[in-house]
Structure formats: structure tokens, C-alpha cells
Amino acid sequence: MRKLIVSIVIVVAVVAGGWYFFTNVVNSASPEKLLQKMQENMAEVKSGKFNAHLVLEGSFASDLLPTKELTSMMGGGGLDESGDTAKEMKQGKTIIDAEGGFEKIENDVSKGSVEIALSYESGEDTGSLSLSTRMLEDMTYIKLSNVNLQAPEDVKPLLDSISSAASNKWIGLEKKDDAVSPEGQTIAVQGEKKDVQEFEDLLEEESLFILEQKTSKETIRGVNTVHVRAKFNKDALTRVLLNKEKKLRDDEIVKKQEMIEQLTRLDIGLWVGEKDALLYKISIAGPVKSEAEGIDATVDANIELYDHNKPVNVMAPDSFSSFEEVMQQVVGAMLFGAFGSLNTMMDTSDNAALGDSMTFDFGSLEDLDGTVLPQDGMEENLDAINFGN
User: 157-191 b/e with 16+ CB inside 10 Å = b?
Assistant: First the structure.
């Protein structure tokens, strides 16, 4: 379901990426002294925890699961390149609850954990799943549980196989360096640092937010905060997301422009501590519309940040399976299901008639070196085969 993908992307972008944005992006160009102080203090935050709640509600395309994408990933056919979106729209809702924590260790290495619970409804269809993630220095572990997803009949066996093989078990993914050599690694790291520096330089020249007003004072987790309402600055977003990119296709430019328009329509709320000037809460609300994705909805997200600079404890699971092992189990489950279906077909009351109809006419089989094997009496003619001796 496309709305599931959109919802998860929003959560990841706001929760994971949001921590970076609000520790490095709310820049000193802001006219609000409180936000200037928040920028300085949040830049020093190396760890913390979060709790997020997101609701995406409205009209969605009728495809309830990303079946084409999933089957393509698993080698089961390709994506539809037509770009057409299902015309039928259904009223639906996606709810995502997430909590976890992150801690930056050193040399851009981080650890953390995230627990996500997702549920959705669209028309008469409903579904849910839970995802647990633990990220350590050298490994990332994920676990699916409470999987209850409705799927069309053509991909249901595949989803059932994945659920059977991957549910309720930890899967370990080793972090591998993409660089092919130490020299390549150095170049890659330098390139990433250059991109980050250019990004920060852009934001120093232009404020990412257009601040509207301070609205109230509120207490969050026992901390007195000031609530500030804001909007994303379209000019700044255009520079950051569009103008900086030099090699974009026309369709990519259109998508970027649509995303910028979406972001500028959202209402942003920031809750900043009165005494310590740390960020304690973010809210995002507004319309989410995309004709290409078949979405006409509203999003309402709230993310609380707490335990700033306190250690985050992340432990590796006691046992886990490798991704390769799980994939082998998925393939095995699919084959077992296929053979089970075949046996069911063969065991029907019409199996005799089915057997009578299974007549194959092979004609003559000709060996590579010209020896002809008649269909009848093959056992008696084995000596006639020339095996090249």
C-alpha cells in the first residue's frame, strides 16, 4: 500500500533525520533569540530518546500493498513502468507509533534502537505489523512481528512465505564498507563531509523556517517550554533540495518541486525549554497530496525528544539469523507451498481423468552426435547410444 510507504518515510524523515535537522539546521539566522540558543545547545546534544505518534488520513489509491515493488524486489516480475495510478480511491487511515533512542559515539558512528507499530484501514481492508530495529557499530538487527497484512491472491503466497520465515526472529545485517579501497574510502568520506558543509553553508545564508509567533508556555515531561509556530521557508528549501542538485532529470525536478510545495503547506510547531533552550517537541500537521502517488490526505505528527545527552543502552540480541538464511527459508516456504498446491490438485477426485489426459508425444529423441532413440523400447536400445567413448 502506497500510503504505508509514505507514512514510514515521513516517520523516518522526521524522527531519524529530524534529529539532525534540529541539531544542525535551525540556524543562527533566526530572529528569535530562544531559537538561536536552542541551535547552540542542540548542536552539542550527542544522544537522546524520542516518542512519536503519526496519523495519515484521507483518500488513497486502491492498491493496499506495494505488491509490484515487493514482487520485483523478490525477483517475481518487474514494476509497471506505465506510471499509472489506480483510479479508484478509498478512504483510509494509517497510524504509526514509534519510540527509541540514538547516540553518536565517534567518527560519525552511531548506535540506537527503534520500535515501530503500524496499523492501517482502507475500506474494508485492515492490517498491522510491528518492526524492531537495533543499530550497533558493526551490525544492524531487525525483527518483524504481529504481521497481519491483507494482500491480493497473486502475491499472498509470497507474503505468507516472508511472514513465516522472517516473523518473530532477529535478522542480522552486517554493516559493510562500500568503498573498494582505503583511497576510495577517503574520497567517499571527504565527499560526504563536503556535501554536509555545503548544506550548512546554504542554511547559514537563508533561514529554513519562517517563524510566525510564540503562542504559549507548556510543560512537557516536567520541563517548562515555549511553543513557537513556524512554516518552512520555500526559498531555503528550493536552494537546499533543488538548486544544489546539478544533474536532475525533468521528472525529478517536478517531483522535487511538488515535495517543496507540500512542505511549505505544513504547520510546524517547536517546543523549546525555557531554561536549557533544548528542543522537547516537534509537531507537523497539514495536507499531503500527490496525484502521482494517488494520495489526498492530511498528516498529524507529534514527536517528543527527551533524555538529552543521557546514555542510550542498546544490546545485541542473544541469537539471530543472517539475511541469507532467512531468504533461503523464504524460497523454501514458497517451494513447499507450490508443491503442496500441486499435491492438492493431484489428490482431487478427478485425478484419474487428469492422469489420462497427461499424454506426452516426444517423437524421436536425437543425440548430439546423430544417434536416434526411438520412443518405444528405449531400455533395449541404450547400447546404441554413443557417449563419445
Answer: ebbbbbbbbbeebbbbeeeeeeeeeeeeeeeeeee
Q: Clarify whether residues 23 and 131 are in a common domain.
A: yes
Question: How would residue 191 be classed by pLDDT, with cut points 50, 70 and 90?
Answer: low
261 and 366 together in one domain: no
* Domain count across the chain: 2
What is the reported pTM?
0.68
Question: Which of 67, 72, 47 shows the shortest CA–CA distance to 5?
Answer: 67
Structural domain that includes position 383: 362-389
Residue 343, domain member (yes or no): no
Counts of helices then strands in the chain (DSSP H, E): 10, 14
Contact of 209 with 231, CB cutoff 8 Å: yes
Q: What pLDDT score was predicted for residue 366?
A: 44
CA distance 175 to 140: 7
Same domain, 77 and 210: yes
Q: How many CA atoms lie within 13 A of 33 on its CB side?
A: 2
Q: Are residues 252 and 307 in the same domain?
A: yes
Q: How far is 275 from 220, CA to CA, in rounded Å?
A: 13
Picking from 108-112, 131-135, 189-193, 201-205, which range would have the lowest pLDDT averaged per residue?
A: 189-193
